[in-house]
Design goal:
By secondary structure, this protein is an alpha+beta fold. The chain contains eleven helices and ten strands. Strands 1-4-5-8 form a four-stranded mixed beta sheet. A four-stranded antiparallel beta sheet has the order 2-3-7-6, with no helix packed on it. The longest helix has 37 residues. It is globular, with a radius of gyration of 22 Å.
Amino acid sequence: MNFGLTGEQRLIVDVACEFTERELFPYEEEVDRSGLVPPELVDQIRSRAITAGIYAANMPVEYGGAGLDPVTLALVERELGAASYALQYIVARPSNILRACKGDQIERYLLPTIRGDRVECLAMSEPDAGSDLRGMKCSAVPDGTGYTINGTKHFISHADLADYVILFAATGEEAGPRGPRKLITAFLVDIGTPGFEVRPGYRAVSNRGYHNFILNFDGCRVQESAILGEEHQGFAVANLWLGSTRLQVAAVCLGRARRAIRLATAWAVDRTQFGKQIGKFQGVSFKLADMQTRYEAAELLTLRAAWKEGEGTMSDTDAAMAKLYASEMCQFVTDEAIQIFGGMGLMDELPLERLWRDTRVDRIWDGTSEIQRHIISRSMLRPLGG
């Protein structure tokens, strides 16, 4: 592994850094206070991201994306990750699941999404089936030439801005070692399809302005052409997404943590107590040392996983370790940064309390820390018969 950046990579990272500071940072406070991203701001960010060449950076060049390799993409995610998630997600990285599009789906869903003409959202989670995807109750029952969908999804991010949903639903059962288990199929379902309702979700302390929704399906009918991938192969489709999205979470955590470290370091130099810069006291300097050490360890884990993804050798464990360590590192770093600032760290004149709030969800979504530890330990135990 060699993480020395090429000239092209440095240029791309610089573009992402400048874009974040110029196009996203100025609007963070307004969005956090109001909980809203005005539609005109969404259009502005999307348009300028397309012009900058960082929109749909994860998608293949032949389809109109930037086609960045996984390491460069992780570095871009790190730069964007320093900003409010409600703003940086607009610089879309369409779900890798869309690479499973075929036939008319390419023109109807994949290409418009890469161009910025359409926006997707992903629907997996259910009220009674969070990490247990095999326990999902939302079903799609064959009815001749298509499927009838019934059930509920929740915690569905940015469904208010989406034009269609990538829906995972149970389409049958198969025998398993512990009894019957659900067969899952992925579908592309347009917002506004009869029998499909989008309702406001829950108010979260993390990522204000980035809303979650509840999706209700009541006799919603779709054609067989709506299947993404193959029938009953939803887990195979999901695997195109899970590893990459966990790396995205890890990289975003790097951006948040690095911003917090920079703020805390500058404060440790500028703030004086008892006639000294507070950075000269071990109680502060040792915190900075621990913050930086954990940050760099998380960065190495993330870049190693991204490099292995580019080599085609990344395992679920690689992505799990990066996501687990980076998300827990970011919570530690933002908390310690607030401690260094003291009471001012909790005031909303600074971004620290928002970084602290926002990163709390990173240990939950896209697989909780407990799920990541399960993946890692399972890979250690299974070769020995455990």
